[in-house]
């Protein structure tokens, strides 16, 4: 197990202490978004459950991969947020205020601060110490949440109320109660955006409850009561009916698998907001599965890619070494085996392959694959040449890539 990213005190995570290759992956990813690395990569707080009890264990406590995945998930979330802001408001400069609810220790805040002045950002979370930490660290406005919606005091309304992955953990009564509470924070021209687990993600051999919401008493949280926070799975009908109960019977749109790897994104419009043409695409995803050293010194890589947005498709996989474009990958047909990790995908997964000469694959060089899509979004895959630090999708390839021909790792 690798703990190179931990601070010497054993507290939070210091990005500057990561393995240099992974720091390079993070720096390159942030540069592609035009984000300031120093402002984004402030240490992760030691009490951040999202990182230390969810992301880090998912990567066998390899701090380097977990830190990169933390950043990767942040920019993918920002891709969705950015599409909503550009299409509904005309850009970040036109926002008066935003609220990130159930914000934890500010994963999304790190990205929002790149586009929105801190004076226009509000955050809230059930962990009072988390929002206090954000106020100290980022200078944003903060107020505590509570176990029950009627205990939360907040008089302001906002242009964007963003609730990433809270409704995917609520029992039915709290789902309705929190939806009503958060709707009260949305201004007339604003939107409420939240994500859910749809029924395709139900645990094996489980079926959806006749009510349209199935609730299970477990979660990644080690401290929240399972009466209020577990794992929930919903039908589109359940969510639509819940939204119809809101004052004003607002319009809404659902974006299938529109957030994170597999959650549906719902956007609910205030009375003055126009979401009729809103379209939110998912960031293309993919991974490297194999690197083989050939007898002539070349290195051959192969892997997979998927475009999850209905009506869109991946148009190419471009290969870069140390920032320079060196070629494109060759498509290799559909990969039905990948689809088990993307239930009811709108599009098939595809395979790809490419070869680099020894001269183009020096040890220690950074390999970056760019997945181009008709949606306009670009997915990124990073690896260290030629073998050790490949990163693939978390669902089934959590370990570092191993060279299939030589056993290098």
**Going by CATH, what is the homologous superfamily of the largest domain?**
Vaccinia Virus protein VP39
The CATH class of the largest domain: Alpha Beta
CATH architecture of the largest domain: 3-Layer(aba) Sandwich
Strand order of the largest sheet: 3-2-1-4-5-9-8
CATH topology tier name of the largest domain: Rossmann fold
Sheet of most strands: 7 strands, mixed
What does this structure look like?
The chain has 409 residues and is of the alpha+beta class. It has two domains: 74-269, Vaccinia Virus protein VP39 (Rossmann fold, 3-Layer(aba) Sandwich), CATH 3.40.50; 281-409, Immunoglobulins (Immunoglobulin-like, Sandwich). Helix content is 22%, strand content 27%. The chain has eight helices and 17 strands. Strands 3-2-1-4-5-9-8 form a seven-stranded mixed sheet, with helices on both faces. Strand 1, helix 5 (107-112) and strand 2 (121-125) form a beta-alpha-beta unit. It is globular, with a radius of gyration of 21 Å. Mean pLDDT is 89; it is low at 1-9 and 392-409. Residues 98-190 form the Methyltransferase domain. It comes from Phenylobacterium soli. This is Methyltransferase domain-containing protein.
């Amino acid at each position: 197990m690798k703990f190179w990213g931990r601070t010497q005190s054993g507290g939070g995570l210091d990005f500057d202490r990561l393995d240099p290759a992974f720091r390079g992956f993070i720096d390159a990813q942030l540069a592609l978004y035009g984000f300031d690395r120093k402002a984004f990569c402030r240490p992760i707080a030691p009490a951040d459950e999202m990182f230390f009890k969810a992301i880090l264990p998912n990567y066998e406590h390899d701090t380097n991969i977990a830190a990169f995945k933390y950043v990767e998930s942040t920019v993918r979330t920002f891709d969705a947020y950015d599409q909503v802001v550009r299409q509904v408001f005309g850009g970040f400069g036109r926002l008066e205020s935003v609220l990130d609810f159930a914000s934890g220790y500010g994963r999304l805040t790190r990205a929002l601060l790149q586009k929105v002045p801190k004076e226009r950002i509000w955050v809230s979370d059930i962990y009072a110490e988390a929002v206090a930490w954000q106020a100290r660290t980022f200078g944003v406005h903060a107020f505590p949440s509570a176990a029950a919606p009627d205990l939360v005091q907040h008089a302001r309304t906002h242009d964007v109320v963003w609730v990433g992955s809270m409704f995917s953990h609520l029992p039915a009564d709290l789902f309705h109660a929190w939806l009503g509470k958060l709707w009260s924070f949305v201004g007339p021209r604003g939107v409420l955006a939240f994500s859910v687990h749809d029924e395709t993600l139900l645990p094996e051999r489980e079926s959806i409850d006749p009510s349209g919401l199935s609730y299970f008493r477990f979660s990644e949280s080690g401290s929240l009561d399972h009466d209020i926070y577990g794992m929930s799975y919903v039908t589109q009908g359940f969510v639509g009916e819940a939204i119809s109960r809101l004052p004003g019977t607002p319009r809404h749109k659902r974006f299938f698998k529109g957030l994170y790897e597999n959650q549906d994104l719902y956007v609910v419009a205030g009375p003055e907001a126009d979401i009729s043409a809103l379209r939110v695409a998912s960031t293309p995803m993919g991974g490297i599965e194999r690197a083989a050293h050939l007898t002539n010194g070349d290195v051959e890589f192969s892997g997979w890619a998927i475009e999850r947005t209905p009506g869109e498709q991946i148009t190419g996989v471009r290969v870069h070494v140390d920032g320079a474009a060196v070629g494109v990958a060759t498509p290799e047909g559909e990969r039905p085996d990948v689809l088990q990790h993307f239930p009811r995908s709108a599009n098939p997964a595809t395979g790809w392959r490419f070869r680099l000469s020894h001269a183009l694959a020096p040890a220690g060089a950074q390999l970056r694959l760019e997945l181009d899509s008709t949606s306009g979004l670009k997915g990124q895959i990073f690896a260290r040449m030629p073998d050790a630090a490949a990163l693939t999708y978390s669902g089934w390839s959590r370990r570092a890539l191993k060279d299939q021909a030589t056993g290098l790792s």
